[in-house]
Amino acid sequence: MATRAAEEVLRGPVKSKTVLPVLVLHLLEQRPDHGLALMQRVENLCGGLLAVNTNTVYPLLRRLEERGFVTGQWEHPTKRSRRLYHITAAGRERLTRIKANMLPYLDMLAQSVERLRHELYEERSIDELSSTVA
User: Fold this and answer.
1) Which among 33, 13, 42, 47 is positioned nearest to 86, based on CA atoms?
2) d(CA 121, CA 131)
3) Residue 131 pLDDT > 80, yes or no?
4) Backbone CA torsion sign across 131, 50, 37, 30
5) Helix (H/G/I), strand (E/B), else coil: 84
6) pLDDT at 19
7) Residue 84 φ/ψ, nearest 5 degrees
8) Of 75, 100, 78, 98, nearest in space to 86 by CA
9) Do 124 and 61 contact (CB within 8 A), yes or no?
10) How buried is 1 (Cβ within 10 angstroms: 0-12 exposed, 13-18 middle, 19+ buried)?
């Protein structure tokens, strides 16, 4: 249930146009990977906060490839297999530019969530909050 609530907060432009593309470029900068593994890495990193699926990741990878930010190669060129994605020099430049502008955006999100948390739960302790959920 918490994951579903998190999806509601981070759906739309926050997820699809800002956080997910930079996260995919960042993960590919660490090491090349295929789509399913990228989805699993995003899930592990974000604890389910950014719910990703094939309908979001693969179109994003195609767009990044069309723009020259990543390249994709089939593991087995003669048969249908996994496509391994690598970040390009242009992708690294793009990642650097995005990250330079993204920290204030992430800070704004964190501050907004903290204000919301404070507004809703002010001085209630964790124990009080746990007992109301159960």
Assistant:
1) 33
2) 13
3) no
4) negative
5) strand
6) 83
7) -95, 125
8) 75
9) no
10) exposed
Q: What's the whole-model pTM score? A: 0.73
Break the chain into its structural domains and give their ranges. 2-101
Tokens of 1: 């249930």
2-101 has which CATH code? 1.10.10.10
The confidence score (pLDDT) of residue 121 equals 86
Q: Which helix (H) or strand (E) holds 113?
A: helix 89-121
Only one residue has tokens 């195609």, namely: 62
Core vs surface per residue 57-94: b (16+ CB within 10 A) or e:
beebbeebbeeebbbbeeeeeeeeeebebebbeebeeb
Q: State residue 60's pLDDT score.
A: 94
Closest C-alpha among 60, 54, 61 to residue 36: 54
Tokens 């930010």, located at residue: 69
Both tokens of 64, joined, read 């990044």
- The predicted pLDDT at position 5 comes to 45
